[in-house]
Amino acid sequence: MVVEFHDNYGGILRESILDKLESNGFSYEILQDDCIGEAYEYEERGTLFVKKISQF
Amino acid sequence: MKIVYVTPHLSTGGMPEYLRNKIDLLKDDNEIWVVEKSFEPAYRTVRDKIESLIGKNLITLSNNLQNLPNLIHQIKPDVIHFEELSDYHFPSEVLDQIYTQNRSWKIFETLHDSSIDHYEKRYIPDKMLVVSPWQIKNFLELNIPIEIIQHELKPGIRNREYGLKQLNLDPNVKHVLQVGLFSVRKNQIETVELARRMPDVQFHFVGSLTDNYSSYWQPILDELPKNCKVWGERPDPETFYSCMDLVVFPSRGNYGDRETNPLVIRESISWKIPLLVRDLPFYLGMYQESENVKFMKDEFDGNIKIIRNLLNMNNEINNTELKLDDNFFKKKLFNIKFDEDDNKINFEYLGEQSLSAKVCVRDIDTQATIYTFDMNLESGMSYWCIPIPKKFYDFGSNPNFGGFLYDFYQNDKKVYTMTTRLKRTQFTKRKCKIETYDPIFVNYEQFFTDKIYDKIFSEITELDNCIDIGCNIGLFTDLLVEMGASNVISVEINNSAINSFTKLHQNNSNVKLISKAISDENGELEIFEDPSNSLVSSLYQNHTSNLVNKNIAQSITLDSLFDDEKIEKISLLKMDIEGAEYKAFHPYQMIILKKLTLW
Fold first, then answer.
1. pLDDT band at residue B545, thresholds of 50, 70 and 90?
2. Which residue of chain A has the CA closest to B393?
3. Distance, CA of B273 to CA of B267 (rounded, Å)
4. Given this chain, do its domains B160-310 and B453-595 carry the same CATH topology?
5. CB contact under 8 A, A35 and B453
6. Helix, strand or coil, per DSSP, at residue B22
């Protein structure tokens, strides 16, 4: 999956998406909008590169 | 009853007039006091009227805000009425002395703004007296009594001939009026540009020109067409209402600076003057049933037609200057220079005649649109634009950017083209397959020039079913097709984007477009749209600054989408839905997560 996230305030990215991915067998990278630079889960916007690594 | 009105000022805008109206109605049966936080002598028309109604009971605090509780204790009012929200204009140490537990007065509050929500309110009054349905919606959760109190209107008698004579205006010409403080929000510049295109109509602007907005109004005044007259602040707006043929109200509210229930609209409705208004989401449709109200389009030429129809004029504009001969577009019309230091393009107009056109600034190599704007020119004028700020994209130093293509459109027909070649690119870039006004350049570069998703595609062994949620005009779908996807489901709700998508993919039999919003439940949703940029439609009006149009879209969960389309396996899902991604992932059972293929 490629998911652009926006308006990430108050930890909503972690709560709504990242926890769900982690508990369902996915790994992910969090990148800046340019999809090159690394970003962090508390940044306001960015892109997730998500990969399924195990079937559940 | 003793009532103390507390107001931040009595200078410009609808609020002072609204307050004056209330005082006029209440003064005979009540003892009215008005405490103004500050006094601006340059803008005192309404204040003078209030002073004539209550005399010495009008008091100015200036910088001594502590004087407010002192005055309250001297006056001993039954009601203190803050005409704007107290929290925004007075510090806690002052309000703590007024919002006391054992107070003997009731406190009412009004506000003349649509940008403030109930959770921003710290001092809770006994009652809110608001001016619009939007504010009722915003403040219901305070759980206190709330009521709309509208300005009482007393329209006079329309007498075109007499009124025009009073103003020394030609009765043989049609007259259009805009009322309001000269400011970005009131958007006088749009009316001036409309006037420029209709030299056979006289336009009038009544409203203050304050120093804090001089950077907005001074350039307008410097280039004011001959058929525009700026009257400034006037004590006699009723003279204008009595004789004008049309009132226009093109205000565009942005987040933090919105219209509420503009007095000008209500006055025009009560005077039964034809009125052309830009309908805004925060009006909640309250003017849609008024007989004399028409709504503006977001298309310049369309508004000219509406105005001329409302004025009972034909659409043949009586201006020989506008009739451009066949050879006009064969001449060199511009000197165009690119300033690398500021990413700025300067257009020096060389023509002698008036020219209005939509200008698309594009990448000379791919022809992807970078920026689109309307240009209205007279002889000798220049325009400049910064298509993208340099910190986001540096045209001069990026080795993959070769230069600019400028396409000029009239009525959606390309009439003129110029180019600026800056340099040769390192390789031949892929041409964009779609001609659009939308600013798709950055996405296009990422997908097809910088190829930022190649890393992902290289890890996928087989591109089977792919999903493109928030596909906009279909660039990522185009990339998926190019990478060999056997089946693509694309999802979009913006109608303008859907039109472009359909043109781009009409021959791709393995692409299917679903016109629904992905969310946490199946049903309907309000969607906010930017009329000049289909890329940023969102569930949230504050997502970007110009989401002024509201639409209703059908919504569907990801799981329902997969059920409806009978999708069993997915190779790649891309999602770019401008803040709605959290709702899309919200449903507890996400069958979709099981259907994604292991890479």
1. low
2. A34
3. 9
4. yes
5. yes
6. helix
DSSP-derived 3-state class of residue B63: coil
Place B7 in a pLDDT band, splitting at 50, 70 and 90.
Answer: very high
Give the phi and the psi of residue B506 in degrees, each rounded to 5. -60, -25
Is any Cβ of chain A less than 8 angstroms from the Cβ of B512? no
Residues in chain B: 599
Instruction: Report which of B78, B90, B273, B99 is spatially closest to residue B175, judged by C-alpha positions.
Output: B273
Sign, CA dihedral B447-B448-B450-B456, equals positive
Could you tell me the two tokens for B407?
């396409």
B329-446, which class in CATH? mainly beta
The fold of B2-148 is: Rossmann fold (3.40.50)
Name every residue whose Cβ is closer than 8 Å to that of residue B29 and which is 6 or more positions away in sequence.
B1
Please give the average per-residue pLDDT across B538-547, as a whole number: 74
Do B521 and B557 form a contact (C-beta atoms < 8 A)?
yes
- Quote the longest CA-to-CA distance of chain B: 84
Global pTM value: 0.55
Residues B405, B422: Cα–Cα separation, whole Å: 11
**DSSP, residue by residue, B425-454:** -SSPPPPPS---SS--HHHHIIIIIS-TTH
Residue A56 and residue B540: Cβ atoms within 8 Å? no
Query: Quick one: CATH architecture of B160-310?
Result: 3-Layer(aba) Sandwich (3.40)
In CATH terms, the fold of domain B453-595 is Rossmann fold (3.40.50)
CB contact under 8 A, A2 and B459: no
Question: Whole-angstrom Cα distance, residue B223 to residue B218?
Answer: 9
Complex prediction ipTM: 0.91
- Strand-pair category, B146-148 with B127-130: parallel
Length of chain A: 56
CA dihedral for B300, B302, B304, B306, sign (positive or negative): negative
Q: How far is the C-alpha of B20 from the C-alpha of B24, rounded, in Å?
A: 6
B456 CB near a chain A CB, below 8 Å?
yes
From first to last of the 56 residues of chain A, give the pLDDT tens digit: 899 999 888 788 998 899 988 888 889 999 998 888 899 998 889 999 998 887 65
Domain boundaries, chain B: 2-148, 160-310, 329-446, 453-595
